[in-house]
Amino acid sequence: MAKEKQARTSQHAAELIILDQPSIETCFDRADKMKPCPIGHEGACCKNCYMGPCRLVGKDAETTAKGVCGATLPVIAARYFARMVAGGTAAHGDHGRDMAFTLLAVGEGHAKDFKVKDVKKLYRTADILGIEFEGRPVLDVAKDVASKMLEDFGRQRGEMNFLKRAPKKTQERWKKYGVVPRGMDREVVEVMDRTTMGMDADPDSILDSAIRCALANGWGGSMISTDFTDILFGTPMPIKAEASLGIFKDDEVNIIVHGHEPSLAEMIVEAVQEPELIAYAKTKGAKGINLGGMCCTANEVLMRHGIPTAGGFTNQEPAIMTGLIDVFTVDVQCIIPAIVDVAKHFHTKIITSSDKVKIPGAIHISFDENIAKDQARQIVRMAIDNYPNRTKKGSHVTEKFPMIGGFSHEYIEYMQGGSWRGSFRPLNDAIAAGRVRGVVGLAGCDNPRWPSTGVHKFLATELIKNDVLIVSTGCSSAACGGAGYLTPENALENAGPGLREVCEAIGIPPILHLGACVDNSRILTIAAAMAAEGGLSDEIGGMPAVGIAPEWITEKAVSIGVYFAASGVPVIFGGESPVSASKEVTRILTEVWFERYKGAFVFEPDPEQMLAKALEFIDKAREALKLKKYEPGKFGTEKVLMDMAARREIEKTSRAHIGL
Ligand code: SF4
Ligand code: MSK
Fold first, then answer.
1. Which letter does DSSP use for residue 37 in this model?
2. 387: DSSP letter
3. Do residues 514 and 482 touch, judged by C-beta distance below 8 A?
4. Average of per-residue pLDDT across 47-65
5. Is pTM beyond 0.85 here?
6. I need a labelling partner for 403 at 20 to 30 A (CA). Which of 156, 226, 242, 482 fits?
7. 222-233 helix and 295-305 helix, angle to the nearest 10 degrees
8. Taking 70 as the threshold, does the pLDDT of residue 658 lie above it?
9. What is the mean pLDDT of residues 499-521?
């Protein structure tokens, strides 16, 4: 068992902790015990009505097997896939909705602990929406922007607001194939409706509704969430932080913020800096208060404040097993109920804060944005009061790595030319000349089930060696950070010659941490900006760009994969396909979607093959765009990245920004 665990955990610190405490059950043990149902595993089971469950198995099941109602295997697999997309869209959609309600509350003069921190971004968003902003009070603009975007959730007809941010050609494809999303709630409801017993029996049509639903997430829920979070809490800029389970301190009160929605976490960030609370901690024998993050709430507070991350999804239980966590606060999504059981072995208090997430055994504090700061203070006090209850139990590790996060799409544009000349021209030119072979979005979860010695780490190393610039989000960023890869030095040591030159010129790591899983929407914005810049593809489809989610877990990941594919980015998901039972569904996701959108949804369990396929997609796109053939160390001379004077200026400003 111990050996298996060691081979399965992608982070060294987590391995040490798990191996040290074999009697405590973790997700790795449960993954061993809970063998997946082989029929459900490949998408051949339907339990959408009580004439079933129907299992469509056997030779020629694809063409001959039928459920009691007559549904075929491709229909059942397509329905299953579409429902995963609906689940993921609902999660990101509700996240975006909550952020919109917070912005609305601020605009209406409530929620006094929050404010509009990035007025410029508010104005840019107002401009996109055609809302007058010049000469108006900031809060009035905030109210109008929030109200306008809230329409996106309940709209019945028409188009969602941010779709216009996609390149024209990309939008035309959506219109041509009838997948333009109308409203967030409508698309989720329609997928659920279409996939009930006795409804849509055409796999292609079912999967079209999945695309509509996913686009409502990418260009709706997630984009709203990203932009409104930036408006409320500030648009990220490069910032130093640390990663891994060694971030906890023996002699300080340790608090974890975990989940996805950062509103309460932002208040906790402020509360832990209050002199009265620090003084109170000292009265209990602690030297101070140490705040750390977990999963995507970690990414949010890391991107804006440099709060260290304890890691991604599979680190939840090992974090508690350090014995050092006084309070573990959770908001929404990716919170495994098992943390309550692990916490029983220690003094750790688990606090749930969203009325959508209650776990028996946890303390519930119902988040109210009108008293948010007071609630944050209450949580910090609970942690301080719990500090004296800490025992010697637990596995303390010291391993941690420096990292740099905070690469918003705005900063990526800025770093390529400064405030006045910011553009995507240098990146497009570097790609055209072959210095940068292409771009990969390395995203998604870390999964305890799949054999892994760190697929994120393997891909990160190999891709940058091949001159591929990586933009990372979600738990992939945590995995890369926990491996020490999110530093500029990584470029010098491991990147190919072209990518190294670009990274050195700008002073950036070869892996740019873009934020949480909702911040995959930043990648859409970057891709749209690259298309608008010219010199590569004039739409998102056809760019030398690929998305990879090597250890995906959630329905959110599937929804993200679909919105990338339908926007024109081929995506590669690790593990076996959850719809492998149906050749027809597999054909639609790969061939048909590539034909229609220049994006595809591919499942590939072998990490070496994931790498090979990603490079193949990139090289084929380069060939179709008639770009210089990629050859390591040999760059085109037709375009230069920047002249030396420009490079020096950018380097100076960028390095100053990240304190180097
Ligand atoms: Fe079986 Fe059809 Fe009911 Fe699904 S919807 S459980 S295939 S009868
Ligand atoms: S937290 S969705 S495990 S990335 Fe965003 Fe990580 Fe995946 Fe949850």
1. P
2. G
3. no
4. 96
5. yes
6. 226
7. 40
8. no
9. 91
User: Does 313 contact ligand 2 (Cβ within 6 A)?
Assistant: yes
H or E element: which one contains 289?
strand 289-294
Please answer whether residues 471 and 514 qualify as being in contact, where contact means their C-beta atoms are separated by less than 8 angstroms: yes
Report the C-alpha gap between 622 and 616 in whole angstroms. Answer: 10
Closest CA to 268 of 409, 367, 379, 116: 379
DSSP 566-629: HHT--EEE-SS-TTTT-HHHHHIIIIIHHHHHS--EEE---HHHHHHHHHHHHHHHHHHTTPPP
Cβ of 54 closer than 6 Å to ligand 1, yes or no, is: yes
CB 438, CB 545: distance < 8 Å: yes
Taking the CA of residue 52 as reference, the ligand 1 atom at the shortest distance is 6
List of domains in the chain: 73-233 (1.20.1270.30), 245-389 (3.40.50.2030), 408-645 (3.40.50.2030)
Residue 524 corresponds to which tokens in the numbers above? 């859409």
Please state, in angstroms and rounded to a whole number, the distance separating the CA atoms of residues 67 and 53. Answer: 8
Place of tokens 């990035």: 118
Q: CB of 282 within 8 A of CB of 310? A: no
Q: Which of 5-14, 311-320, 521-530 has the lowest mean pLDDT?
A: 5-14
Distance CA 247, CA 291 (A): 9
Q: Are 39 and 165 in contact (CB under 8 A)?
A: no
Q: Is 56 near ligand 1, meaning CB less than 6 Å away?
A: no
85 alpha carbon to ligand 2 midpoint, in Å? 15
- The β-bridge partners of 334 are none
Do residues 533 and 181 touch, judged by C-beta distance below 8 A?
no
Q: Residues 380, 272: contact at Cβ < 8 Å? A: yes
Q: Of how many residues is the chain composed?
A: 660
Rg (alpha carbons) of the chain, rounded to whole number: 24
Protein residue closest via CA to atom 3 of ligand 2: 445
Is the pLDDT at 176 greater than 90? The verdict is: yes
* For the CA of 556, the nearest atom of ligand 2: 2
53 preceded by a cis bond (ω within 30 of 0): yes
- Contacts (Cβ under 8 Å, ≥6 apart) of 337: 359
The position carrying tokens 């994120």 is 456
